[in-house]
Design goal:
The chain is of the alpha/beta class. The chain has helices at 16-24, 36-49, 60-71, 85-88, 93-98, 114-120, 150-162, 174-181, 186-189, 215-227, 236-248, 253-268, 296-305, 328-342; strands at residues 4-5, 53-57, 77-81, 101-105, 131-137, 166-170, 194-198, 209-213, 273-274, 284-289, 308-309, 311-312, 317-321. The model has no long low-confidence stretch (mean pLDDT 98). The structure holds pyridoxal-5'-phosphate.
Length: 343
């Protein structure tokens, strides 16, 4: 069957320009610092995010793991939003690799209140090693791609400064936030100490993420990447696609957001679906199934039978994601399938 694939923006295939760039990439041994294409990608990335230095890593999860590791010591506490990716979807890497204690905080659509964050801070003493890091996520995947405001970042920054804590941003989709709000990414990134963002999601590169921070921080990150087995050799072959992603694929994210809105408004009209389409700000749509006898996993199975791929993310929540490889036609097809299943 020919599927319309709304599972994630990670399913995007590299563009023709990316494939050509990969074919023609000038390469060298990047562990020895010899790959000019990786260096170029890292320079472009650092400049776009507004920090001194950048490091190409194989995945977003590895990028986040490296940053948490550098900012913490074993036994430290890390404050993060309770539905965030680092805490929920990265195999407990906080505990496994950094051996830190996650302290999740509730939020309003991804925005933790500064009061809640301050209350969650533990001082070093006889009963706690103390808090050293706050992790933020923007856009917020499991809050339906919500954009966390610059204002919220500023408030949390103030708390972090007061208590001498670092802030790491899981900015897997930070360019979606920037395009949605029409403000430069540096409005957010200037307020944090390290950033991870992904090339392999809506930006459509086949592989790779970037860690960004100070020169000193990136030197440490390079060492820890090696420890994790993430030091790669003639990796300009894939970094070249990342350059195309940063040069050509950011502006078009708006098309994904427009499609997501269209899909969200259509879904919200279907009986048995609970969704406020105004909550959909970027390319991720999360909605609840409210129909007797149909839960989210079954709904997703039934959709598959009709050629539509989506993800169930809990017993009653379904996630759709728009990206460059779905079209208006796919959106209409998805809406028709949802109506047929829930009628
Ligand atoms: C918000 C967020 N952070 C981090 C990641 C991890 O990226 P990767 O799949 O490249 O490890 C994802 C992946 O979907 C994500 O959505």
């Amino acid at each position: 069957m020919n599927y319309s694939d709304f599972r994630s923006d990670t399913v995007t295939k590299p563009t023709e320009r990316m494939r050509k760039a990969m074919y023609e990439a000038e390469v060298g041994d990047d562990v020895l610092g010899d790959d000019p294409t990786v260096k170029k990608l890292e320079e472009i990335a650092a400049e776009k995010i507004g920090k001194e230095s950048a490091l190409f890593v194989p995945s977003g999860s590895m990028g986040n793991a490296i940053c948490v590791k550098i900012w913490t010591k074993e036994g430290d506490e890390v404050i993060l939003e309770e539905r965030c990716h680092i805490y929920n979807i990265e195999l407990g890497n906080l505990s496994v690799l950094s051996r830190v204690l996650p302290r999740p905080v509730p939020s309003k659509r991804g925005e933790m209140s500064p009061e809640d964050v301050e209350k969650a801070i533990r001082k070093r003493g006889l009963t706690s090693n103390g808090t050293s890091l706050i992790c933020l996520e923007n856009t917020h995947n499991f809050w339906s791609g919500a954009v966390v405001s610059v204002e919220n970042f500023k408030e949390i920054r103030k708390i972090a400064q007061k208590h001498n804590l670092k802030i790491h941003l899981d900015g897997a989709r930070i360019f979606n936030a920037s395009i949605a709000k029409k403000i430069h990414v540096t409005e957010w990134t200037s307020l944090v100490d390290s950033v991870m963002f992904c090339l392999s999601k809506g930006l459509s590169a086949p592989i790779g993420s970037i860690v960004v921070g100070s020169k000193e921080f990136i030197e440490e990150a390079r060492r820890f990447r090696k420890l994790l087995g993430g030091g790669m050799r003639q990796v300009g072959v894939i970094a070249s696609a990342g350059i195309v992603a940063l040069e050509e694929m950011i502006e078009r994210l708006e098309e994904d957001h427009i499609l997501a809105k269209r899909l969200a408004y259509g879904l919200a009209e279907i009986k048995g679906i609970e969704l406020n389409p105004d909550d959909v700000e970027t390319n991720i749509i999360i909605f609840k199934i409210r129909k007797n006898g149909i839960n989210a996993p079954l709904f997703v199975d039934l959709l598959r039978g009709k050629g539509i791929l989506a993800l169930s993310i809990s017993e009653n929540e379904v996630r759709f994601c728009t990206h460059k490889d779905v079209t208006e036609h796919d959106v209409e097809r998805a809406l028709k399938a949802c109506r047929e299943i829930l009628q």
